[in-house]
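We treat protein structure as text, and this decision shapes the records that our systems exchange. The tokens are whole numbers drawn from a learned vocabulary of local backbone shapes. One such record is reproduced below, unchanged from the form in which we store it:
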Amino acid sequence: MNKINKRPKHSGKFGRRTFLAGAGGVAVGLPFLEGLVPREARAGSDLVDPFAIFFRQANGVAAQQSTALGDEPERFWPTTHGPLTPETVAGRAIEELSDHLDRLLVVSNVNANYFDYADGHANGALQGLTAQGPVVPGQGGDSEANGESLDHRIGRELNPDGRDSLFLYSGKNSGWLGGPCVSYRGPGNRRAALHNPLLAYQTMMGLDSNQLEELIARQTSVNDMVRDQLQSLVSSPKLSSNDHQRLQLHLDSIRDLENNLTCSFGVDELAVLEGLSPGYDSDIGDEVLTAAMAHMHVAALAVACGYTRSVCLQIGSGNDGSTRYRNLDDNSLMENYHYVSHRRASHDNSGDVIANADLLHSMVDRQFAQTFKYLLDLLEAYELPDAARLIDCGVCLWYNDNGNGPAHTSRNLPTVMAGGANGFLKQGLYMELNNGDDTVNHARLLNTIGSAAGLRDANDEFISDFGDPNFDRTPLLELLA
């Protein structure tokens, strides 16, 4: 059996999660340091646990289609299946990820089921990470998913002590489906999201409000609170040169993250602590995506130091119906994204036609692609002791609730993965599933990603039990390296 089929070797005494305990009970998690692990336990990149980061977009993409307003050209998907090249992504939203083409796996013809949620947005958002129908059919905006989401299961089964995975949210904390709506503990049990990136950082670091306020007021870093232990650790003869480099990168990342958080949310830091900063609870697209980037710093640090094996970042409410993204041609604000996705100035098909709405939709796609690239850049910056990069140890999924707008179909859901999860997944390709037919295979994709992140069944095989049991749930072996 290949090593990717096995459980992590270091789930017990010699796990890679090490802490420095500092003033006031602050505990700073450290990355794996080979000098602190017994020699017989070392196994190169096997020591880096696979992880999954989920990045959610609503309302579909600007794909080729015929609508009541006319034919729309393809502006999202690569031009041809096969190897991803600058030529095959030119002119498409995916070209924003050109720096990472060799790490991407773009998958078309991912099809979800049309469950009776009584609303296309509920159908897409609530089954997106659960592959389950509604608890009660036909509830529309009051719907709840009838199962656990994959991000939560990864955390429940693989995180230290079953710690919850991180669920992060950027955008107005209200709207269709109530704002945060994609992560579930179980049937009808929706998770609350960490909205303020500073609160997400506080949660991960174990800081109480007084400690966090003190750090901000003094313009110091949490690193300073563990200075004595840090100096002792750095001077240890057990640490290799790789250990020193990785430790420095890790601590620099903490400080950079803190600078990002305190600089991105205005002058009044107390307003941030009280949840009054406009950035993460805004309807201005640039502010929403800037807050998402701050969340991504938290996510990158969280998987780098072993705090969690799973992070979910949701942008916007169930239909992202209040965010106004930027027109890339003139920097003006568009109509709200949901209007743009319907091509009309309404939440249905009754409003005035928005000129060039399909082009505006593509501009939103590009801004999401740019934000996803920001995450990939962060993960690539982490160099591991064996010269691998953190991005290669896990899988990052940029997914969409719907295939397109205005139909908001559950067919051909945009699916872009980055990172091979320690050699588990193919990379550098654009692939089509099921020869383009309408087979429901969404649960199969989620079982594949869960297996890539390290989930295994009782026989130590890939999972095939996630999602509605009425559909095929076996992993998509054609996506495996």
